[in-house]
Amino acid sequence: xxxPVSWHRLPATFVFLLVFTSGLSAQNATLAVQGVLxxxxxxxxxxxxxxxxxxxxxxxxxxxxxxxxxxxxNVSILGGLYEVVLGSGATVLNAPFDKPYYLGVSIGTGSGAxxxxxxxxxxAPYALSLLGNTNIFPSSGNVGLGTTTPNAxxxxxxxxxxxxxxxPRMTKANRDAIASPATGLLIxxxxxxxxxxxxxxxxxxxxxxxxxxxxxxxxDSIQGGFIFYLEPSxxxxxxxxxxxPLAESGTYLWGCNGIALPAARGTxxxxxxANTRTIVYDDxxxxxxxxxxxxxxxxxxxxxxxxxxxxxxLPSKDELxxxxxxLHAAGIGGFGANQSYWSxxxxxxxxxxxMQFTGDTGTAPSTATKTSSARVRMIRAF
Length: 382
Hints:
Number of strands: 22
Largest sheet: 4 strands, antiparallel
Order of helices and strands: EEEEEEEEEEHEEEEEEHEHHHEEEEE
Strand content: 25-35%
Helix content: under 10%
Strand order of the largest sheet: 1-2-3-6
Number of domains: 3
Shape: rod-shaped
Structural class: mainly beta
Oligomer: single chain
Radius of gyration: 37 Å
């Protein structure tokens, strides 16, 4: 903030020249003020270090209400010139700055007459960057809206008893069109199933999931199968398909023998879908067999149960192992005893990972040639 240089007269003996600039930051606000004190005859006051000046911010040029004040003691005067920084001491410059203010200056502790007229605070050039469509805010510290003392543990604190925080509102189509949404991004969806949605890092999810007071458990039968993996929230995870003659009545090749598929080598929880898509969409998928039903990934991808779910895929190596541990070893799911099941994880151009479902929870997956036959138990995320 700055003010045009101007002369101000006292009813007493001094003439006053004032300029000031602002130093507002995220941590605190300060106001640098320069002034010249002169006697009525135009001569500067004697040099000294013990002057006392009081500064007030008023909401009107004359009369009005004081919104803030600070008294500076031991102010140094040299050649009539002094410099002070308001808000730099124990008195915080906490005026809201939401309207024009006028600076009142007096000699002493504030009971004496002020220099007149009061100069109006004007915008410093950088402060104008807070206006318009390209606002610039401090890059460090914390910010308060509706409060001049934001909580130290908050990057942004809002306080109000009459207004709320409005999150961006958009349709589902608008939401899905957001390019590379950041994990934790929050929006309010206005159509389909309206409500707050956040991006989990892999999908948009409704915050309503956190209101579920009865989270699912491993082994629960829902949505076409049995839960064998749960996310920490307890309301999302992975389901192994229920026993189905189409899936359990035969054995299948892994496919793509002799062809390396590096994009199908994901082993972790959550990588089965991508592995399956890689196998299915690769031109080698039907090589080495007698049609779609001879390829494990194709079998898992194309089956639709009578309950209507059609988003099944072949589990990754770790997903397959977890399915054996949490379902088969607990007697859930109707898996074939000592039968081998394919994962969607390739080992190399000629081998892939499968697992024999035994009664031993310590059993681990092993590699087999892609031309070997094994059963398929598809999974889906919920």
